Amino acid sequence: MSKVGFHEPIDKWSWADYVLLAALVAAASLLFCSGLSIRSLWGSEGRWTVVAREMMQSGNYFLPTINGQVYFDKPLLSYWAIIPFSWFTGVTETSARLPGALAGIGTVGLTFALGRRFYGRTAGLLSGAILLTTAMFGFWSRTASAELLNVLAIWLMLWVLARGDRTPSFRRYLVFYLVAALSAFCKGPVAPAVAVMTTVALSITEMVYDLRKAGFGEKGRGFTFYFDWIFSVKGFLAALCGLAVFTLLLFLPVIVTGTWDAVELMWRENVTRFFKPFDHVEPFYTYFKHIPVLLLPWTLVGIASLIGVKEWGAGWTRRWMICVTVAIFMFFTVSGSRRSYYILPIVPAFALIMGISLAGFLERLPADSRAMRAALIITGSFPFLAGAAMTVAYFAFGQYRHVSEVILGPLAAASGILAVMLAYRRRYIEGTAITVIALFCLLMWGYTAAGAIGERQRTMRSFAGSLQAHLKSVDGDKTAIYGMGNSSLIFYLDMARPITTLSDMSAVCAYVKEPGNYLLTEEGLAEQIAGECGPHELVRVLAQPDEGKKRNREAVVLFRTGKPAQNPFK
Fold first, then answer.
1. Is the pLDDT of residue 145 over 90?
2. Where are the domains of the chain?
3. How far apart are the first and last CA of the chain?
4. Is the overall model pTM greater than 0.85, yes or no?
5. What digits encode the pLDDT tens for the residues 275-285?
6. Which of 425, 511, 525, 565 is most exposed by smallest CB count within 10 Å?
């Protein structure tokens, strides 16, 4: 049986290619950019929004602050990326999340371009569609963070050099090194380190392959041929240009602010953490657990696709895909500091593997793989399960009820049944198309309507509004914060000036001795403050409502010091 065909890279694009790319970009734009403000800020998103807003308010774009306190945690470009989208509206949930959304859209486009270059437009289309409908990829594309900027940079660098003819090109090398230099200031040097290490692995792989096949002498190729991206004159000059940009961006904050904090951060957060991790330490096998979750709902198709890699043919493109995937996996596994989303850059690699394997399967070039058939049938059932769950939730759980559930739920369930039936009858093209469309609609619902449902249980935005109204008439010197790392609350409070931050318990005790002061802290610290600061009474004025049934010890509480004559809030 024939295998997936190998051909030289396709550089000339047809109108059909542009149409497919435009369709994928439009779909990604709709999915990643719709309803970005529906969900309130969560986790570390508050840090990005507050830093960007305080940069715009102060006019100092080289000194990141949160509530007026210097906060060097991530390089400056990840904060600067938010600012162009905030010129007219100010920093909002939408403007903070747009850089990640655009990076996600760009990565989908690059995935299509790579799949098309390697194995034709069908493989490119399927690779892009799979990445587009991978739930966690979409989730992180809609998050205010540097994660997707990092992913886009890595794959842009890999795409620039992904050619089979290895023709030296100063322009391509320059793009590679400039992207490396810029991306080092989004999430630190992780992106250039991954791309460079992967490119080294690719060069070594090709060198060993040629050596085993014909030897160096017969082809007249020396060591520098395989490392032309750095050892050729064009590669070296491009690297110098990238190094110049990197040096400028590294030391410009030092020159402007007079502090080495930015450089020290770069070293501590990336070099030190890689070799001597001080947080997020998980076992070496952790990514074997995280990757299947990151690939949902296509995990089983991914497993079947790995089995089908042998059907691709023995060209350089197969070596390229395998080497890239393994290199990215090994880079993040070798680092002792591990978190589930650190390995997001491997998701496009799996999307390409799935798209290429599925393209061959749908064209019936390989044998009718039982593994792929089973994976498509099970994956096709996901819309049915999701649709059934939505319908049940509407009738059984009033707090999660939304009219869209009784509209989309039955349609999704019917689509799942149809997709399974078509796959079972070996009509894989139609079944896969219906599965992709159904998953797209479900994800669109999940990011919008489901987000609105989830916000019913979240209390930060509404509590911040109540808190803001209460503190509006309070002298700024009479309000302080202790032990509260919730940047999202700082963002939603949007105070005219920074709130005083108390650094330790002795400062808190001195502060609460004075009556009429207001203290913002977390629920879990309230008893500790009362116990260590003596009998001075703290009157609970406002408290963030619980989010669900579980008592949240990180919930924010506003106290007033000293017992007032009248307190309607008590």
1. yes
2. 15-362, 370-455, 460-561
3. 79
4. yes
5. 676 566 678 88
6. 565
